[in-house]
Hints:
The complex is a heterotrimer of chains A (642), B (258) and C (229).
Chain A: H1 16-23, H2 29-32, E1 36-40, H3 44-56, E2 59-63, E3 81-82, H4 94-104, H5 111-130, E4 156-157, H6 163-180, E5 184-187, E6 190-198, E7 201-209, E8 215-219, E9 222-225, H7 246-253, E10 258-259, E11 264-270, H8 288-291, E12 293-297, E13 315-316, H9 318-322, H10 332-344, E14 352-353, E15 356-357, E16 360-363, H11 365-371, H12 373-391, E17 400-409, E18 412-413, E19 426-428, H13 446-466, H14 479-498, E20 502-503, H15 504-519, H16 525-545, E21 546-547, H17 557-581, E22 595-596, E23 599-600, H18 604-607, E24 609-614, E25 623-628
Parallel strand pairs in A: 1-2, 1-9, 2-5, 9-19, 20-21
Antiparallel strand pairs in A: 3-4, 6-7, 7-8, 10-18, 10-24, 11-17, 12-13, 12-16, 14-15, 16-17, 22-23, 24-25
Helix pairs in contact in A: 3-6, 3-13, 4-5, 5-13, 11-12, 15-16, 15-17, 16-17
Chain B: E1 3-9, E2 18-24, H1 33-46, E3 69-70, E4 73-74, E5 96-100, E6 109-111, E7 114-115, H2 118-125, H3 147-157, H4 164-168, H5 175-186, H6 195-208, H7 219-223, H8 231-245
Parallel strand pairs in B: 1-5
Antiparallel strand pairs in B: 1-2, 3-4, 3-5, 6-7
Helix pairs in contact in B: 2-6, 3-5, 5-6, 5-8, 6-8
Chain C: H1 4-9, H2 11-36, H3 43-53, H4 57-88, H5 103-106, H6 108-126, H7 151-159, H8 162-189, H9 195-224
Helix pairs in contact in C: 2-4, 2-8, 2-9, 6-8, 8-9
Amino acid sequence: MDISSKAPNDVDIRVSWETHKFRMKLVNPANRRKYHVIVVGTGLAGASAAATLGEHGYNVSAFCFQDSPRRAHSIAAQGGINAAKNYQNDGDSVWRLFYDTVKGGDFRAREANVYRLAEVSVNIIDQATAQGVPFAREYGGTLANRSFGGAQVSRTFYARGQTGQQLLLGAYSALERQVQAGKVKMYARTEMLDLVVDNGRAVGIVVRNLETGAVTTHAADAVVLATGGYGNVFYLSTNAKGSNVTATWRAHRRGAAFGNPCFTQIHPTCIPVAGSYQSKLTLMSESLRNDGRVWVPKKAEDCGKRPDQVAEADRDYYLERKYPSFGNLCPRDIASRAAKQVCDDGRGVGPKVDGASRGVYLDFADAIKRLGKNTVEERYGNLFEMYERITGEDPYAVPMRMYPAVHYAMGGLWVDYNLQGTIPGLFVIGEANFSDHGANRLGASALMQGLADGYFVLPFTLPNYLAGVKAGVVDGKSAAFQAAEIEAKARIEKLLAVKGKRTVDSFHRELGTLMWEKCGMARTREGLTELLGEIPRIRAEFWENVTVTGSEGGLNQALERAGRVADYLEFAETMALDALTREESCGGHFREEYQDEGEAKRDDANFCHASAWEFTGVGQKPVLHKEPLEFKNVHLATRNYK
Amino acid sequence: MKITLQVWRQADKSSAGNFESYTLDSVSEHMSFLEMLDVLNEELSVQGKEPVAFEHDCREGICGSCGFVINGRPHGPNPKTTVCQLHMRSFKDGDQLVLEPFRAAAFPVIKDLVVDRSALDRIIQHGGYVSVNTGNPQDANALLVSKDDSDKAMDAAACIGCGACVAACPNASGSLFTSAKISHLALLPQGQPERERRVVAMLEQHDAEGFGPCSQHGECEVACPKGIKLTNIARMNGDYLWAQLLGSPRVGGSADGG
Amino acid sequence: MIDVGRIWRSSAGAKAVMAVSGMILFGFTVVHMLGNLNVFLGREAMNDYGAFLHEVPDLLLVTRVVLLTALVAHVVTNIKLMQDSAKARPQAYKVVTPKGSTLYSRTMRISGPIVLTFIVLHLLNLTFHPVGKNWLHPDFRLQAGGHAPDAFHNLTTLLSQPLWGIFYVLANLGLGLHLFHGAFAMFRSLGVSGDRQLGSARMAATGLAVAVSGGNVLLALAILVGLVK
């Protein structure tokens, strides 16, 4: 398996993308219409890629499982998008964003990719603004910025608390423009079930029309996956209910290496679980930490008291205490683990679920005193409203309660500098790939990466691949297509035929609870080993005892979920194995054995690499390939946010 | 608490539907409305019955997937709240709730409470964009936009495309949705070059999809989970009349997509 | 060329036709109501006013043509709009819980036909007199030596009959409801989107709607109970 990065390491990193772009082959404008590209997923990455490829003249088929491309989960991102514009003249630069991202990712990302990301970040803001994305502005008419978790400069652009929504609507509008122009054919309510690989090339996909139930294949000269992350392996996460690993996992089964699956991000500020029926967790933008102060009572016996009855002296503002220079704005993984520690100490607040209070206060009393209620409302009004709707508590009067939740997958399909996976012709962009965030993603960088990949990277690197293959030679009726279609149909029939006693959700919940306990915020060798024993058992029971009502024809939401959970039951094993194999702590991956008084302790001598797993069969141990990571520009150092 | 539901069940687009009654005995007030339906669906699945199909995805009020009508109100009784964010504490023990899909000719029922809202996408296809190719733009700060205009544009752009406005409107009009997108772009300098052709093409597509006319009842504004204002409809009407009566003679038809 | 047909077929265009024709008819009701107030000044004032209107026959004709055109446009366009909205929701809800709309807006389909019926009967009562007599009036007269009807006599003898009097009171209340929603909706239909401008325009229009309805109702009541005869 070839996992060479193909990054232009022979030149100064500051000109590496420029150099690479010049070296790549182009497709003549007259020939572009002869090529057909499939884009799966229409979030920021997929919509921007499909629209841009359409503008360039390629024929694109775009797929999403939602009823409209506008509903992809990018829409839920609240806080903002980073760009090295340095509009605030506070010392930001492409180099600093690059540096911050490599360091924030705990030195587990590929330098060249990160530099490119920082470089094109400025173009994204220009592009989005030109599309009419209503970013926040100053009275003088210029764009406003704020500082965001983990950054000491104000480089985050935002549109109230709905930045993801506005950026996605921008990309979606560009996509719909290409639909109208006839360059993109949109297939909504259509889910990818498998990747078709013929003669070693990715040449198509198998899909199910979720409205009619029809299973069909689509052929193309290249396949782009922009299918997001796998946070729902934990059942409870901030991801949308429909977010799933199926597309990337199926591509993995067909030969695409999976990169760093154990790198998941826990978001520190989510609304705590309220009961056993909980179906998902709601994230509250990290921007709240700009003005809110995080605390718990110093003494466990004060935890049952109303927050206003805990005297100032009896409160432990533990982030400010432990990390004086970053305070409440320290990176996500650190803030999350700190919350877990105080709750493990028995100092959590809020109602008890399963015997324990798991929550910390995020208090705006000081901010309201300092800025006035109006300013706080201007900045966070919609978030406060959302919190009140969900909890029934008024955050202007009572401190919010927060607890970490799974939020983002840094891991994903392994890709080279061209965003191509280990199967030629398979490109992976956005959260679905593993590339740019290393072991931890900085706040407001997900939107940046999705759009960078879709608008400014893939539209250069994909043609480089297409220029090397003959257009239109893919035979959509070949044996590979037929076999993949038959396999997909057989799997659906198998799911419907089990007719067991347990619901799909009950299996998903069981898997998720275990994953959260053993492979969540803190992991141990013992726990992971145990987990690796449990997953095959749950998977076996699933295939013996699951009940999927309805039939394969027509809309069948239980069947959709069953297919996704079946894939999570396979994926979880690789994820746990990756966590077990990486015997160090870095970023979001915290192994209790490897720590320095609670701080993650990296092992650069043995683990300064990206893990790329090769599938060998369900229940079989996958093969680990290591892509060594070199840090020539940002020197390896221990992260220190104290 | 105990909740009785009368739910519209319909197998597919071509079947006739009917109401079926379900009773849930132990609903927690902290559950979201959709979590309550999850519980019902788990029970139905275990009994081997088909669960109630309803659309949902983000469950945090932003994707616009969810939405059905509870006792005559799209997204239920609470202002500015999607049904995924509606919690059972808004109801009381013993309540009887009638759940119906959004009803409009332009929104055919696919199954149970799931409707086909692709008409909204087609309206956007007819001009709900700025025709600017990737990579063309100038520096973002080269064009100043007053904060007031930007804020108003954002107010309109906050629309989540859920279709509650259509469901609430006595005429099943999609004017609030259409005008929100038109207003968002009409309020910004970036939207000016295509302003006239956009309003004509989008509004005529709105009509072609079978949405009704706007009678200014104001039901949409109250039902909108994002607080989109009727003012947007006025702006759309004005822009449309301007474009047709005083604007460029070449206005109209569908935008060519550039 | 302005494509009138295309504008009329569009939902916003049709509503603009409703607003413009409605505004013309609304304006007429204001003038008409003010003219009616002459009744309170007595027979002479009322009949002089009526004779004055008939002094310039061309102006009267133009006014009537404009009003008739507006009325026809208003009614025909409304039929189209009602068909469009009926088609837009083929299946009704089991439960309907209005929250944002007003009584006036929801009753437009009742108040509209009431107003139309009233207009027709009112014209037959007091305006059309093909043979110097009016078959829908007990005692229709023309003014001595003129073409103009004896408005004061015709009006008072008609409205002092309880059935007609009560009908006129109710019809003018219906007209009030109709004008209320018109005052609320017509400016937005024509594109007034500024909150302040809309607020002022609406307040003025609503005031006029109250005046029209109130003035006419007072008049009819005054005749009905015999204060004016």
